[in-house]
Amino acid sequence: MLLAAVHRNVSAIECKSSGSRAKSTALATHSPPHNNNNNSMLRLRRNCAFKFCPLSAVLSNAIPPKAGSDNHISGSSSNNNHTHTNNKHTNNNTGRCTATGEKKNDCASQDMLNMWNSWRKAQQQILERRAREDRKDKRAKGISDVAQRQPVEYQKIDMEALDGSVLESGIYDDRPMLFFGKDEYTKQVVANPEEMQNILKSFHNFRDIIESMGNDHHEADFGLGTPKVLTEEPESIDPFEAIEPYINPLDKSKPSSVTAVATPNANAAVIAKSKKRFKSKVHVNEEQERLAKQRALNINLNTYLNVVRKSTLPHMSEGLMTIHLYNILLHGYAGKGSFDRVEELFKLIEEDGLAFNEQTYVAVFECLGRLEPDEQNQQLISKYIAKAENEGFSLNQIMDQSKFVADQRDIALDAIRRLRPDFKPVYVPPQLGYDNELLNHLNEHVLPIRGYSTAQLEQLAREQLKIELDGSITIKSIEKSKEFANSEKCRERLKELEETWRKQITSAIVRDLNTLRAQVRFKPHGFMNYYTYLKTLDTSHFADILIKELYKLAEGSETFSPTVGQLYKELGQKVQQRYKIEQKKHNGTLEKIGEIYSSYCELWDSGKSQDNTRQAWQRLVHEQRESGPSMDLPEVPWPSNVLTGVGRFLYNILMRDIKIDAHVMRLKSKTKASATQTQNMLPAFYTLFRNQGRFVKEEVKPHPVLSRLLRASRQQTLTFDSNLVPMLCPPQPWSTPHNGGYLLNKSELIRLPHQAIQQWDRIAASNPQHLYPALDSLNQLASVPWRVNTQLLDVIIEVFQNGGNAKLDVPQPPSSLPPLPTLPAKDVDGNAASNADRAKQFRDKLGHRRKQAEMYSLWCDALYRLSLAQHYRDKVFWLPHNMDFRGRVYPVPPHLNHLGSDLARSMLIFDQAQPLGVDGFSWLKLHCINLTGLKKRDSVRERLLYAEEIMPEILDSADNPLTGRMWWSKSDEPWQTLACCMEIANVYRSADPAAYLSRFPIHQDGSCNGLQHYAALGRDEAGARSVNLAPSAIPQDVYSAVAVLVERSRKTDAQNGLHVAEALAGFVRRKVIKQTVMTTVYGVTRYGARLQIARQLKDIDEFPKDWVWPASTYLTTKTFESLREMFTSTREIQDWFTECARLISGVCSQNVEWITPLGLPVVQPYNRQEMKHSPRTGFKVSSNFSMDMYERPNILKQKNAFPPNFIHSLDSSHMMLTSLHCERQGITFVSVHDCFWTHANTVPELNRMCREQFVALHSQPILEQLSQFMRHTYSFKDNDFTNDGSVEDLSKRQLNRTLKQLPQKGDFDLRNVLDSVYFFS
């Protein structure tokens, strides 16, 4: 087969023009030998314009070598200034180029144990030659222009005289090369111009890509310790050398041996330069930089080996860093029964000084179990059993502590039972209970969830599995749009185009993968590119991914498009997601999940279990450990650099191979005339550059013809990824940090940026029992079944399809925005428009465009939400949950959930109905009045009386939501109010309200919850009363209280003649300062507070607009002063948090971390990012990427974010405590952060547990425990001080003092919270 490929470092016959060497890429075509087992190779220079002479003439020696010239391999003058190396030899053959040697196998299967010593020797020789040639070239500069324009000549090379180690080393020229063989297919290709054009197309497509990416960033290959060769002249230092010695993490030698390679004659300036003080904006010191590189290499190797062991394994010639990486290779060879390779790895393990662990022995037994059970096999099994037992590993321990995929467990057991037939492994059951002072009393049975039969749940699970295996779900859109006359014709053409695109994509994938395969083939060992990752899927999968992305891009808005970087990452993530699904299908995980989930469904039906969902799942997994794969396998995510590289590969195909006919919209029938009409094929996508804040980003746009075709075809469907929609069955419970959520799709437990690995390390090092509270709370929230409120949904869809309504927060389409008035060329007096008028028009246009973009974004969000709600309107569904790094929980599906706006919350109700009971109807009416916001300062009794007064309005709203008096539309939360009115009407008209089965959720909302936690931490009496921690007859309103203090201060200033205070007379209102008071606890800055207040003042029509900015500055200062006066302890605690974080991040150069009261480790992921753009390294896997634990923290973000983040971790702990106690009592519980939902009949129980858990939480010494943790983690010891009075020494002492200086506390009694009616109401 003829392989067309681009290869940067392959050369054979040189195309010479006697001129300067131009940097060039390479075109390589590979085929079996052509004549007498010789390979004919044609090398072309790029500056020859790639005009190929007839290949048949080349093969028949039509172009003889230059008379008297020596054949040689030359290196191009690349960016590294490498000069050519002459390998002189004599070729007595005819003019054909000859080469001998066996055909090479794929790169991944090349024998890395062979050629290693010869490679190092050859590489060193080449480097020395290049240094000498470089000096010669510098002395012989001056090549005339006439010489540069001399005709092209080709020079033959006898490959027999070439040492094979040169090709193995990868140090050769950057020239195109063609390989020709002798088979019939090769002859056909050579004789077929179209086939040759395909080869040239492959080269032209990749030439610019590889050059543009490969020259941006120079990095050493993986696993290579390049020898350093310093000659006597400073300018001859080879570009491979680094001024700072590179310490190969795979090298077992000491660091000092690396620098010993340098000769004594090395330039003193170079040596002096290596001793300069370490400078980096990202890393703290050289040690951190080295650890970051080593960790990055470890991650890359881990991912790479996990992928490559599924196909063809590499052969190792150098050691790896950990036994874990060796185990991956061992299992790969064990799966093939290659015990010889396993023994070779044992030698490397011994050389590295690593010890076997349980997983190593399992790999050995698996390998031996796949071999024939002869006498030698049994002796080996006996040998390694004895070795394991001598090292303290029992067979039970080996089987219990190891992880298995596919049939590994069964094969290993079979090998052991060849010697010990009666062996049956004993697996240690998991720890199921809590290890937390706040939760130890819950280590008992939980009331089960009922309502679904085993058959129902199994059918739902089958439907869910089908969706996840498909990878996406397509639903009908609710968009109301008129049908175009040519819609049907456009749909047909779009379908034809899709078939054509799919063929083009498939062909391009094969072509470009062959290119990468050839690139890797002749690279040095240790080189890793994306070929291995891209070979994990079939071309059909890539075609599906690109077709879906193609439609998504084509349907985008005019004002927003994804950037190229975003598209790289998104495409890479989709490839990884599909790979994970395919992996589970083939390694037995899918089948075992089905078996365990079936048993899980039986527990839901029977209700016999006394476990919560996590404990039940763990028991079922443990019971089925006898055979099959392990269920607690931590998935190995691809590093961000791999995702980007894989996405870039697909992006190049999307941009270069997807074409569209510019005449496709013409409606002529397919007559003979139209059939012969020439097509104008153009790229379907292009890029443009657009300002995004301070940066200019490259965005991807569809061709206008493609956009018009899609609009005309009026696609009435929407497609969502399967991990973005609700589940049709109960989610898999979180049992480990890596297993939970969707059945097959990967769900992340914690939402973290890709560079944040420090928190994952803390979680991995934690006792699993310390994570159970957070996992169980997520499981409890995910176990609540939902359904759509169809009665309300129909009303919302009607409003949406009729153009939306801004007052009701139903987004309007951008077309509803009135156009801007045009600026006349001349005014009424005949004068031209002034510069000020034109500038104003330009600003108005920008604002108009921004408003259009905002409207379109909101409209799309509503379209997705309503379309999904319509799709699930008659179905029960579940929402898997995860959390952010602070512990705050969120539903995983982003479009249809109970978080978000008033409209989003109003559409969902509980699936399981419960009778209202005696007080349920009263709670329903009280909830309705709370939603309106009309009686915030009134007592519960007054609110219920008001509900009876307006009952006619409530009933009218329910009966005639859009045609009646629409009382509900004046509410603070109109759609939730309307939904509640509908439920009240149903109950009001029922025969027995107490027996009415209600699905409606009732909310209990915290009263400025952040300040509640601050007041409880500081035991602040005044602050506690203002946020309803203390009992009172009517609810206290902290916003009104702050407004009173601000108004008092304003009056004093006005009396003293301050003009801004006089201008604010009558305008210091609760609404003006509410947002600032609410967000001050979450770290709002003075600038942000000023913007908030200015926005409120602008909305007051009577307020003079000239005073908006001065008044907002004044009110910001007064609001902060009033808060400090009212919440003294709060401000002191906040200041202590800020100062601790400033010193930790500034003095220690570490991220701020802590452990929540429920045991969840938290690390703030704010670091300096030196590189705004990811380095491009062609198609080679980059060796470095950002990791927070090795980088300098962003001090400003660390100190500003610590106070709000710590409070968020406390409110999430309170929510989780309430969640777990409700679960134990069988009470439905749902959380929207500090707003708790339940059925109407269980509100009293929820209120009781909410208050009890708040008191229990703050009865813990939270600040004392935080101070102790930070002192243990960050404090300096006595021997760390220099006692020289330096700034550094004083800063260390200040850190130690600050961490010990706890804020003063008040004398508020927390038990008052138990009797406070308005604490949560």
From TrEMBL:
<dbReference type="GO" id="GO:0003899">
    <property type="term" value="F:DNA-directed RNA polymerase activity"/>
</dbReference>
<keyword id="KW-0804">Transcription</keyword>
<dbReference type="InterPro" id="IPR037159">
    <property type="entry name" value="RNA_POL_N_sf"/>
</dbReference>
<dbReference type="InterPro" id="IPR043502">
    <property type="entry name" value="DNA/RNA_pol_sf"/>
</dbReference>
<comment type="function">
    <text>DNA-dependent RNA polymerase catalyzes the transcription of mitochondrial DNA into RNA using the four ribonucleoside triphosphates as substrates. Component of the mitochondrial transcription initiation complex, composed at least of TFB2M, TFAM and POLRMT that is required for basal transcription of mitochondrial DNA. In this complex, TFAM recruits POLRMT to a specific promoter whereas TFB2M induces structural changes in POLRMT to enable promoter opening and trapping of the DNA non-template strand. Has DNA primase activity.</text>
</comment>
<feature type="domain" description="DNA-directed RNA polymerase N-terminal">
    <location>
        <begin position="462"/>
        <end position="783"/>
    </location>
</feature>
<feature type="repeat" description="PPR">
    <location>
        <begin position="322"/>
        <end position="356"/>
    </location>
</feature>
<feature type="region of interest" description="Disordered">
    <location>
        <begin position="68"/>
        <end position="101"/>
    </location>
</feature>
<keyword id="KW-0240">DNA-directed RNA polymerase</keyword>
<feature type="compositionally biased region" description="Low complexity">
    <location>
        <begin position="71"/>
        <end position="94"/>
    </location>
</feature>
<protein>
    <recommendedName>
        <fullName>DNA-directed RNA polymerase</fullName>
        <ecNumber>2.7.7.6</ecNumber>
    </recommendedName>
</protein>
<dbReference type="GO" id="GO:0071897">
    <property type="term" value="P:DNA biosynthetic process"/>
</dbReference>
<keyword id="KW-0809">Transit peptide</keyword>
<keyword id="KW-0496">Mitochondrion</keyword>
<dbReference type="Pfam" id="PF14700">
    <property type="entry name" value="RPOL_N"/>
</dbReference>
<dbReference type="GO" id="GO:0006390">
    <property type="term" value="P:mitochondrial transcription"/>
</dbReference>
<comment type="function">
    <text>DNA-dependent RNA polymerase catalyzes the transcription of DNA into RNA using the four ribonucleoside triphosphates as substrates.</text>
</comment>
<dbReference type="InterPro" id="IPR002885">
    <property type="entry name" value="PPR_rpt"/>
</dbReference>
<dbReference type="InterPro" id="IPR011990">
    <property type="entry name" value="TPR-like_helical_dom_sf"/>
</dbReference>
<keyword id="KW-0808">Transferase</keyword>
<dbReference type="GO" id="GO:0034245">
    <property type="term" value="C:mitochondrial DNA-directed RNA polymerase complex"/>
</dbReference>
<dbReference type="InterPro" id="IPR029262">
    <property type="entry name" value="RPOL_N"/>
</dbReference>
<dbReference type="InterPro" id="IPR046950">
    <property type="entry name" value="DNA-dir_Rpol_C_phage-type"/>
</dbReference>
<comment type="subunit">
    <text>Homodimer. Component of the mitochondrial transcription initiation complex, composed at least of TFB2M, TFAM and POLRMT. In this complex TFAM recruits POLRMT to the promoter whereas TFB2M induces structural changes in POLRMT to enable promoter opening and trapping of the DNA non-template strand. Upon metabolic stress, forms a complex composed of FOXO3, SIRT3 and mitochondrial RNA polymerase POLRMT; the complex is recruited to mtDNA in a SIRT3-dependent manner. Also forms a complex composed of FOXO3, SIRT3, TFAM and POLRMT.</text>
</comment>
<dbReference type="GO" id="GO:0001018">
    <property type="term" value="F:mitochondrial promoter sequence-specific DNA binding"/>
</dbReference>
<keyword id="KW-0548">Nucleotidyltransferase</keyword>
<dbReference type="Pfam" id="PF00940">
    <property type="entry name" value="RNA_pol"/>
</dbReference>
<dbReference type="InterPro" id="IPR002092">
    <property type="entry name" value="DNA-dir_Rpol_phage-type"/>
</dbReference>
<comment type="similarity">
    <text>Belongs to the phage and mitochondrial RNA polymerase family.</text>
</comment>
